[in-house]
Each structure stands twice: as C-alpha cells, then as structure tokens.
C-alpha cells in the first residue's frame, strides 16, 4: 500500500519509520523539505506539495500540530482538487468543531475524511507498539482499522468523526496536569536541596506517569524528545478552546499554557516537554 505522511515532525517521522518497516511504500511531504530527509534515506519518496502526496497515495495521514494547520493544508483550491475518492485521516489535536468542518468540506469535494488519536509517544510509534483510536464513518472502519493496525499495536473505531477528538481531550487534560505536577514537585525538591534518590521515589509514587519525564528533570537533559514543548503549547491551546466551549473554567489551563509559552520563548520549543521545569525553577529568566 502507498501511504502518505503529511508532516514529518517528531510524531510523523516516528510513524513513517513504522510504515516503512511494515513493508508499505511511504510518501512524505513537509513544509520544510529538509525534515523529510531522514525518512527518504530509509526509502520514502518525498514530494513537494500536499496535493501530490494525496494524489499518489492510497491512504493519507496528516500529522500536524493543530486543526488550524490542517485547515491551511487541506482547505485550499490546489489540495481540494485532488481529494475526490481519496481517504485522508488527521492525527492533529483539534476541536470537535474544527474536525467536523474539515470533514464536511472534504466530503463536498468527494473525499473520505477521518480522524485519529495517537495513544502513544514517538518511541512507541516507531516500534509499532502504539495504538490508535479512530473516528470515521462506519463504511470506512474496516479500511482504517486494517491500515493503521498494519504498522502499530492496533486501532479501534470509537465512533463518528469528532468522537476520537473527544477521547483525546480527556487524555490531554491528564497529560498536561501530570506534567505540571511533576514539574512543581521536582522544582520544590531541587530548591530544597534534596538528593534525587530521596525525592524521586516519592514523586513516582504520587504521580504514576512521572517515570516518563522525571529522569530528564533530574539531569536537566531535554534532548531526547517524547513530546516537545511546542506541541504542548498547541495541545493546551486546543484544550482551552474545548473546555471554554463547554462553559467550564479555563484559568488553570491558561496559567499552564503560559509556562509552556515561556519555555518556548526561552529556547526550549524543540526540547522535551520536561523542560518546563526550567521556567518553574527560574521564573524571571
């Protein structure tokens, strides 16, 4: 099968490796062509437009940061001209309204649009152990479940378009709050001069997901990226829009977003999300 990846950042590149390793033909497009080179060296074909990628592929997976980026990529005259009879799925963090709007426009041009939430970080995607939840029309379920399962730990349809986004919203809340919990706990421990062997087991006990980021916070080494600071800013932006649309308070989330934005302007945009510790430790820098 010919599968296109539109967006070869951290997650798109990891997924691309799994697709190649599964024996599929991979087509890649990225706004910055240089970012496709690692996958090209592994056997992928790079193209220069999203329209070309979609037109050549049997299935297209969009791996961008948010719904705005997906709309900019898809909802233009050049790209919409090639979506007829094409199957496209988005893995971007979007609001329900955004994903439904995109699906409607693609359908008006004869395409089949779906959405997916990646229940995995980059390493799991790369090793084909991550899983996906899919929101799509019932008639597209078999295609997407089989296609995605061929290079992952499995895929499951959870409902119509918009339902996967709802599930991702729940995961985003937990992920963002856990990160801040670990960051503040680690910052307090380090400011108090506690040794890592003293505070590490306590934080791991209090926050079960701490093991994914705490070692990086202890060493202040954020070069091995699981999820970037930039992606957390985007995720929080989407999450705030969703929460606000449901009439719930967003003040806590907005303050969390400010921390990640400060980390971005402080030079950590392309570092691991654990780097938020640095702005908690040094708020005036």
Automatic annotation (TrEMBL):
<dbReference type="Pfam" id="PF03446">
    <property type="entry name" value="NAD_binding_2"/>
</dbReference>
<dbReference type="InterPro" id="IPR015815">
    <property type="entry name" value="HIBADH-related"/>
</dbReference>
<feature type="active site">
    <location>
        <position position="166"/>
    </location>
</feature>
<dbReference type="GO" id="GO:0050661">
    <property type="term" value="F:NADP binding"/>
</dbReference>
<comment type="similarity">
    <text>Belongs to the HIBADH-related family.</text>
</comment>
<keyword id="KW-0560">Oxidoreductase</keyword>
<dbReference type="InterPro" id="IPR013328">
    <property type="entry name" value="6PGD_dom2"/>
</dbReference>
<dbReference type="GO" id="GO:0016491">
    <property type="term" value="F:oxidoreductase activity"/>
</dbReference>
<dbReference type="InterPro" id="IPR036291">
    <property type="entry name" value="NAD(P)-bd_dom_sf"/>
</dbReference>
<feature type="domain" description="6-phosphogluconate dehydrogenase NADP-binding">
    <location>
        <begin position="2"/>
        <end position="142"/>
    </location>
</feature>
<dbReference type="InterPro" id="IPR006115">
    <property type="entry name" value="6PGDH_NADP-bd"/>
</dbReference>
<dbReference type="InterPro" id="IPR051265">
    <property type="entry name" value="HIBADH-related_NP60_sf"/>
</dbReference>
<protein>
    <recommendedName>
        <fullName>6-phosphogluconate dehydrogenase NADP-binding domain-containing protein</fullName>
    </recommendedName>
</protein>
């Amino acid at each position: 099968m010919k599968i296109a990846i539109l967006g070869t950042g951290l997650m798109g590149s990891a997924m691309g490796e799994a697709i190649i390793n599964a024996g599929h033909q991979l087509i890649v497009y990225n706004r910055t062509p240089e970012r496709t080179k690692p996958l090209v060296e592994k056997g992928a074909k790079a193209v220069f437009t999203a329209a070309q990628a979609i037109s050549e592929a049997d299935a297209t997976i969009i791996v961008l940061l948010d719904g705005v980026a997906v709309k900019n990529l898809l909802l233009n005259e050049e790209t919409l001209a090639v979506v007829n009879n094409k199957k496209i799925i988005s893995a971007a963090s979007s609001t329900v309204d955004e994903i439904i709007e995109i699906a409607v426009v693609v359908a008006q041009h004869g395409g089949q649009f779906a959405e997916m939430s990646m229940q995995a970080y980059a390493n799991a995607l790369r090793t084909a152990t991550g899983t996906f939840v899919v929101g799509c029309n019932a008639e597209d379920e078999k295609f997407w479940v089989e296609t995605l399962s061929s290079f992952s730990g499995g895929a499951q349809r959870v409902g119509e378009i918009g339902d996967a986004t709802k599930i991702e919203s729940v995961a985003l809340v937990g992920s963002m709050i856990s990160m801040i919990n670990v960051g503040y706990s680690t910052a307090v421990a380090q400011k108090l001069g506690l040794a890592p062997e003293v505070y590490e087991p306590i934080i791991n006990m209090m926050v079960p997901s701490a093991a994914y980021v705490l070692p990086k916070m202890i060493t202040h080494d954020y070069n091995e990226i699981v999820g970037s600071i930039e992606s957390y800013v985007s995720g929080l932006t989407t999450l705030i829009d969703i929460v606000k649309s449901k009439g719930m308070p967003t003040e806590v989330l907005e303050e969390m977003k400010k921390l990640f934005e400060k980390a971005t302007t402080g030079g950590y945009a392309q570092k691991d999300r654990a780097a938020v510790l640095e702005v908690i430790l040094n708020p005036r820098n």
